[in-house]
């Protein structure tokens, strides 16, 4: 069954299929920049992000990177690298970060959501073993930390160094950046500089 959901900013195709079929689609689309692929429990998603999606992704990535640098936290930005557990799950977050050094599965994955809810995406990230997942959806930033029994929504990051991040400040600056990116960055930098 194929389903196409059109939104003003993104296009998403959802297919039912096997891991082998997913790998064929992944191979066929490797020369298509910007196309993101996901797999979990027989569901294949193909996402073609639009301008708003990419804009918010870049804003969030810039602000998170700014915070990490300002705090002297050792990290490797891993962008939208494919995160996989063979035969089980595959995802391409909008932004991801490995704290301390490069790892096959990042410590933090961030997704901007315009086309579907975040709850079904958490199971995919749990299968991958991502420590923390953040979702930006409808002007709301939600953080989820992986526990033994699954993800728990949290008010602030529990990752080393990121626990000092003021999530409300980050959310306000993301919203501000939609209309005035330089002012949002200046506000964010000034606020984190005072901590």
Mean pLDDT rating:
90
Note the run of SSEs as H and E: EEHEEHEEEEEHEEEHH
Helix content: 25-40%
N- to C-terminal separation?
52 Å
Q: Please report which band the strand proportion falls in: under 5%, 5-15%, 15-25%, 25-35%, 35-45% or over 45%.
A: 25-35%
Q: Which regions are unreliable across 5 or more consecutive residues at pLDDT < 50?
A: 1-7
What sort of overall outline do the alpha carbons produce when their principal axes are compared? globular
Would you give an account of this structure?
- The longest helix is centred in the first third of the chain and has 20 residues, at 51-70.
- It is built from 5 helices and 12 strands.
- It has 195 residues and is of the alpha+beta class.
SSE map:
Layout: E1 2-6, E2 11-16, H1 19-28, E3 36-40, E4 43-48, H2 51-70, E5 75-77, E6 83-85, E7 89-91, E8 95-99, E9 108-112, H3 119-128, E10 132-137, E11 140-147, E12 150-154, H4 167-177, H5 181-193
Parallel strand pairs: 9-10
Antiparallel strand pairs: 1-2, 2-4, 3-4, 3-7, 5-8, 6-7, 8-9, 10-11, 11-12
Helix pairs in contact: 2-4, 2-5, 4-5
Key terms:
195 residues, alpha+beta, six-stranded mixed beta sheet, 31% strand
In short:
The chain has 195 residues and is of the alpha+beta class. It has five helices and twelve strands.
């Amino acid at each position: 069954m194929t389903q196409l959901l059109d939104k003003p900013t993104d296009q998403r195709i959802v297919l039912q299929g096997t891991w082998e079929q997913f790998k064929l689609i992944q191979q066929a689309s490797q020369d298509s920049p910007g196309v993101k692929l996901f797999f979990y429990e027989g569901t294949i998603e193909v996402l073609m992000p639009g301008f708003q999606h990419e804009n918010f992704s870049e804003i969030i990535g810039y602000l998170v990177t700014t915070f990490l640098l300002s705090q002297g936290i050792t990290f490797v930005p891993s962008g939208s690298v494919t995160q996989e557990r063979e035969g089980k799950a595959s995802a391409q977050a909008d932004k991801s970060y490995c704290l301390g050094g490069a790892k096959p599965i990042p410590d933090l994955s961030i997704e901007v959501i315009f086309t579907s809810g975040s709850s079904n995406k958490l199971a995919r990230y749990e299968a991958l073993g991502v420590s923390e997942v953040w979702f930006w959806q409808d002007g709301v930033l939600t953080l989820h930390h992986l526990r033994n029994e699954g993800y728990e929504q949290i008010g602030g990051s529990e990752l080393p160094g990121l626990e000092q991040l003021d999530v409300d400040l980050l959310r306000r600056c993301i919203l501000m950046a939609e209309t005035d990116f330089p002012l949002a960055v200046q506000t964010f930098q000034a606020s984190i500089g005072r901590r």
